[in-house]
């Protein structure tokens, strides 16, 4: 009932896109947690509703890590199409997809395709952690922001009773990773972290986080045509 | 990494199935919240992992209520098939689908079909709130357990600052509902609640809840072949 | 040409949904025969046309019984969607799906979804044998109406030169059946019958049948909005 | 149970493919009736089982004739694939698809594709009425064997209380038909018959029929590798 | 930009359909080359645009010949549907599909289905090499026009440095081919040619070619309603 | 036959991925031409076969430019999956997808997913024009390599009798482009070029081209695991 009142004066809505997958020493839900939280922190002050994060996405390369379910590409695309169709049918017109997982990039292609079929709708697909702005801020903190390392290590993604390794992990061999099947990926990654420092002080990661929240909020405010 | 240790000694896993949809004066996420929570309360003491609840399902009849996204049936079926395939590929063999939404029943059909194609896997599809046992317990409390009324009204599904109507809502006209399109459903349901008392004392609903948790736990313990 | 005249004054049509599958000592086509016949007996006096029964449905649990073809869920759903779309495009507006097989329940979910996408159409999905009314009448006759037992044993579903066992079959172990793969189902069911008496006198089953026909006719007459 | 005994010594099975569609003055089920009957007459003497005819196929050009439901091509293909997969899984290895409708030709393409993916299966797709042999025999009877004319007019496809026009219908304008949408098809065809004589004496059509049955039987006997 | 000017005065467009597959001693791209070239020679004098040939089609029977990729039927159908939808959305209304491969026949079924769903569009599906007219002309030249033999042997489909066998290949055993899996097809075909003369003088094949081009041009000029 | 000999000693193959779409003053086939040509120049010296370029891809944003057909994402993904499956079934094991169009990025996701399901296959997805190496070289030539400007302007993509504008086009408003529907894209782009110089001297673009060819060749030689 609250949404009906809202729709009388606004038509923006946020759909966070996550993934459930290995994140080294962090929660399997890291990407979902971050996408959901960055959305809520950005949208709540504006009164824009945030849908529940979609906790399953595209992560076939992690197939040899248990607890990393992956959808087929077609399924993921149809899922997003159905969600957009359905929410659009209920009156929303401006959709911000806040993505938390690198493998989900085809969601951006779907957003473009879907938008091309609607005269009255706009969709912004935004991968919150890898925008120019957030990456620039992250690199001020440390040169290697990456999967499951300090860059995703926040109070809200850490697991209780898990101790992290000290030091830095050597860089991932990207060329080998490119043609690695699940078993080879498993072997290449070991503990699942790609590279770099496992953890940094919260006041440093907090600055990156804040940049991410600010950018999402600005998109919500002024990213539309 | 914890899941790999787990898989050395066990192969059970729980996938809660929810829906995001109007629930009268309760949270849009009621079905998801309940499926997730009943799963966690049942599984944690056994050490069985619970995947994130799937927050989107089949609810086409509520298309005229904003905030009730619905998937097409094919999409939902493929989504579940992909999840089962993927998790199965990672070593799990006994799957308990804990369903929180009446519209999701085809997930049970998919479970049967999927299981028929796997020699080494078992799937139990369990709609936690409408088993004989939970319904019997519920009817001891009140004759009309139903959508969005006291039966789904728990401390964890109530919204802050929402006051519920007093008294009982008259019964839904089931024959009219059967052939109602979204607009007619909207009109028939008004505030979205089907019928009966909006709220009962927590100690009464707690008994129903406890029965639900117990049954899920027993299925996890002894529902397998 | 006759249908065009009909459409000038009416827009109802019946689509019977069957299945081809093992029925113990009865015809593989039992579900189709019953759905088709109950439809014809109900609809002909009203002049409402009945489409040919769809003889293939969802019966994955019987995969180890030869002669029990089963469709994938997505295929079945798309098949029904296409049929409804096509017939709707030819002028029909009120569709009664008369279902004869328990596994086909997702057809009801599809009916709901399809109807939600059409402003001018109504679909009733009716599983003729398991309505409250028919089951109540059946239980007056015998406490165990079930798959392939007396409940489906009519002059029009019996096979020539097949002799039925005497006595009652012990009840199916439902908990075991729930997690049984095709081979285990085969073993659990033996001759294919679920439980109870194989045969009852025709004057008893005739009463059940008559109730089924009456209910379908009443739905055709007054089930619409 | 009879099929299990059969499979101990044989692995052939027949699936008739029909269509429900306008046939001028003949039954809407003409294609289904003929495919089913020609299959039964050919297979029964050999003891080869015949599945129920699939009564829905591809007939988009008749969309403006009520009672002519048509499936989308993808749906039809998936339906056939599922049926073949399922029956193959139950032990059959040699499949004869007896087709009764011109629009269903893509079933032959699917048969080829499906067979290419199975080492141990053979599929023959046979459109019974348009083989060289049957057409040759038909043209001995009359030069214009065609849709809904004498060529499909048998005691088992005629409707009671329907009187046929006398004389011959002028030939269909094939070039116009080629680019006609449903409304134009409707206009071009008028009563639905393509061209030629509406009816011929049964002893003449019987000869064509007999040729069709013989050919199907010979395929069943000696069409395999 | 040129197409926008064109659309101001015309709405015809040609889509050639090819296949990449073994053609004995000729190019793997023979079907594509011929479909593209016959389209261009026919359309250019009329100023009608020709889209790039679709070089992949349906050729499952050649699965044991490397370099013969084949699409699943559903994929091919959806691909064509998308192309027609997309081009139609850009203003074209009369589509000529010029097909160069026997296995692609279901494209004609799709064309019919697609056209039935559009009020304002016409599609002609034309398999250029097997029209009555082209085959008649071909048979004047030689009695066995066939796959990969002289009938497809043109200066533009020959491979450099490949010498052809002399003489005629004996006829293909069509009955064996009908039920042959990929390995058996491989064995039956040997060098991939079906039968007959490998090569004829260019002035003879040129006459066939000219007939093919003429027919395509006439369809473009006067095949529409 | 040549491919069979090749497969005895090698298992690499190249599939170029193109698009047919507006390219300002250049050929509609620019992306296809470039992907095909860069593949051939790289692969021929190594004797690695190159399949025909797939000339249709994902370009929904250009829907208002005639001659820019776009596939739905699901269709494109299934098309690629079928091609990989089919070619893999014919003996190839190392696949290089050389992509020429920005919209086709989901092909890379499919490549990853497909590879994860094959133990013995490797797929490299390489967008030839936007690798770090090629972009670095391009930026040495001019700061704005972009769609349809000098960066794609080669002797083999220019149209006869088309004169290009002089000077530089002002930069595209990326924020506006992000939420633009087809009509707005049309308006934003005008002649279709994104920004920058329309043309540069061939000796400058030739250096970029050479870098692209070299990189593809090196991937073919040493990009595998």
SSE topology:
6 copies of one chain form a homohexamer.
Chain A: H1 2-9, E1 12-17, H2 30-43, H3 73-89, E2 94-99, H4 106-116, E3 122-127, H5 132-141, E4 168-169, H6 174-178, H7 182-189, E5 196-197, H8 202-222
Parallel strand pairs in A: 1-2, 2-3
Antiparallel strand pairs in A: 4-5
Helix pairs in contact in A: 2-8, 3-4, 5-8
What is the makeup of the main sheet of chain A?
A: 3 strands, parallel
For this structure, the quaternary state is homohexamer
Trace the largest sheet of chain A across and list its strands: 1-2-3
Show unreliable segments of chain A: none
Number of strands of chain A: 5
Following the backbone from N to C, one meets helices and strands of chain A in this order, namely HEHHEHEHEHHEH
Q: Taking all residues together, what is the mean pLDDT of chain A? A: 97
- Indicate the overall shape of chain A: globular
- Tell me the distance between the termini of chain A: 28 Å
Structural class of chain A: mainly alpha
